[in-house]
């Protein structure tokens, strides 16, 4: 199931706002649960098992914390658990959907989709450069970790010699970061990304039937949300 970036971005906003605000879930309980679970269903379909397992784990801890709060309603730890449960249950679905949106979207599709919805190049170019930078840093961080593992610098060695672990972990990363920033900026220029110029694209992103269904569902959620606020 290939979903267009515009659809995923729209659903990210809908899920993030509705779950954080909470009135929709209070009025339509099962619909609220479905909205909270929808990012996990998308991630599960795309076999993002790690993302789903982490989300379920943190959500399970939040519900467990709520059960503990009922037994100790006036304690300090109940306040901490209440804060944690509120953050996870209300904010995590939107974060999961946003993470899924970005990790399942090619950069060319993202740029093309933003152009189709008439985003100005002054916004598209910084977004494109920023996400290419983060992706490059992620790959460099992984390579540094593999090199450290070859030299037996694992997490266990952190407790034996923390200064050496931090030096071999972050000094190369800081040196690479500066170089990566320059390379990404040069790459954007060579790709012809200009603020005042038209840019062609080889992306084949387009709205399909599944996108129209999901967009209609998002509009339905918006109408329910407005209805609750007006009533």
Q: Can you characterise this structure?
A:
The chain has 231 residues and is mainly α. It has ten helices and no strands. The chain has helices at residues 5-21, 23-27, 29-45, 49-71, 76-103, 107-116, 121-150, 155-160, 162-190, 209-230. The mean pLDDT is 78.
What is the compact description of this entry?
This protein is mainly α and 231 residues long.
Question: What value does the average pLDDT take?
Answer: 78
Q: Helix- and strand-based class?
A: mainly alpha
Query: What Rg do the Cα atoms give?
Result: 22 Å
Total number of beta strands: 0
How many individual helices? 10
Strand content: under 5%
Q: Can you tell me the residue ranges where pLDDT is under 50 for at least 5 consecutive residues? A: none
Characterize the main sheet: none
Order of helices and strands: HHHHHHHHHH
- Shape designation: flat
Task: Give the termini distance in whole angstroms.
Answer: 37 Å
Give the proportion of residues in helices. over 70%
Kindly list the characteristics that best describe this protein.
single chain, 231 residues, mainly alpha, 10 helices, 81% helix, flat
Summarize the topology:
Layout: H1 5-21, H2 23-27, H3 29-45, H4 49-71, H5 76-103, H6 107-116, H7 121-150, H8 155-160, H9 162-190, H10 209-230
């Amino acid at each position: 199931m290939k979903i267009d970036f515009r659809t995923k971005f729209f659903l990210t906003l809908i899920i993030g706002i509705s779950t954080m605000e909470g009135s929709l879930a209070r009025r339509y309980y099962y619909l609220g649960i479905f909205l909270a679970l929808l990012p996990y269903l998308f991630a599960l379909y795309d076999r993002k098992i790690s993302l789903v397992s982490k989300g379920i784990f943190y959500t399970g801890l939040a519900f467990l914390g709520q059960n503990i709060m009922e037994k100790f309603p006036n304690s300090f730890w109940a306040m901490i658990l209440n804060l944690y449960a509120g953050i996870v249950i209300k904010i995590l679905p939107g974060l999961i959907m946003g993470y899924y949106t970005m990790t399942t979207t090619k950069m060319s599709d993202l740029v093309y989709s933003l152009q189709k919805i008439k985003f100005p190049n002054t916004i598209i170019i910084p977004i494109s450069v920023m996400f290419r930078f983060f992706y490059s840093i992620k790959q460099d961080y992984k390579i540094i970790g593999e090199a450290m593992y070859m030299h037996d610098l694992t997490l266990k060695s952190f407790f034996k010699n923390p200064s050496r672990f931090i030096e071999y972990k972050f000094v190369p990363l800081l040196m690479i970061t500066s170089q990566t920033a320059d390379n990404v900026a040069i790459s954007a220029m060579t790709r012809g990304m200009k603020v005042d110029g038209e840019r062609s694209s080889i992306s084949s992103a387009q709205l399909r039937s599944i996108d129209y269904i999901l967009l209609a569902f998002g509009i339905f959620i918006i109408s329910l949300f407005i209805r609750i606020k007006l009533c």
